[in-house]
């Protein structure tokens, strides 16, 4: 499966499907208990999105959201909050404050800030 992913990354070029595929592979890896490898894949997806598509592209924002959730599960809530804050700003700018994707990020951010003991204003 990893060889197929590498081939797709080489042949597709700058396209959201590359970021989406990396995230899907990271999810599968994470579901198999390989959290460190999954985090690397999420980070690669985010970096690819930022480089190929830009910080505000929906695929890049989704990769950042998924990375934040993955690292939060490993106990790094502080970095997750930083990532989610950026994702929230991007979602609000591109989708609006009441869009379901924006609301999902806001909820995850609230959970993380609560875990850190830093209440967030609505």
Short description:
The chain is mainly alpha-helical and 122 residues long. It has helices spanning 2-12, 16-31, 35-52, 58-73, 77-94, 100-116. Helix 3 (35-52) runs antiparallel to helix 4, helix 4 (58-73) packs antiparallel against helix 5 and helix 5 runs antiparallel to helix 6.
Q: What this model shows, in words?
A:
The relative contact order is 0.11. The protein is 79% helix and 0% strand. The chain starts with a helix and ends in a 6-residue tail after the last helix. The protein has helices at residues 2-12, 16-31, 35-52, 58-73, 77-94, 100-116. The chain has one domain (2-116): Alpha Horseshoe (Serine Threonine Protein Phosphatase 5, Tetratricopeptide repeat), CATH 1.25.40. With 122 residues, it is mainly α. The longest helix has 18 residues, at 35-52.
CA-based shape: globular
User: Which structural class do you get from the secondary structure elements?
Assistant: mainly alpha
Order of helices and strands: HHHHHH
Instruction: Indicate the radius of gyration in whole angstroms.
Output: 14 Å
**What is the helix content?**
over 70%
**How many beta strands in the DSSP annotation?**
0
Distance between the termini: 42 Å
CATH superfamily: Tetratricopeptide repeat domain
Provide the β-strand percentage band. under 5%
The total number of structural domains is 1
* CATH fold-level name: Serine Threonine Protein Phosphatase 5, Tetratricopeptide repeat
CATH architecture: Alpha Horseshoe
The whole-number mean of residue pLDDT values reads 89
Major β-sheet annotation? none
Our count of helices gives: 6
CATH class: Mainly Alpha
Low-confidence stretches: none
């Amino acid at each position: 499966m990893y060889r197929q992913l590498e081939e797709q990354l080489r042949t597709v070029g700058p396209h959201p499907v590359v970021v989406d595929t990396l995230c899907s592979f990271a999810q599968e890896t994470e579901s198999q208990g390989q959290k460190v490898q999954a985090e690397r894949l999420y980070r690669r997806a985010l970096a690819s999105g930022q480089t190929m598509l830009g910080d505000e592209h929906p695929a890049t924002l989704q990769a950042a959201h998924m990375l934040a959730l993955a690292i939060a599960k490993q106990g790094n809530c502080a970095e997750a909050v930083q990532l989610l804050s950026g994702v929230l700003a991007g979602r609000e700018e591109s989708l609006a404050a009441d869009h379901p994707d924006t609301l999902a990020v806001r909820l995850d951010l609230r959970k993380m800030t609560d875990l850190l003991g830093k209440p967030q204003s609505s």
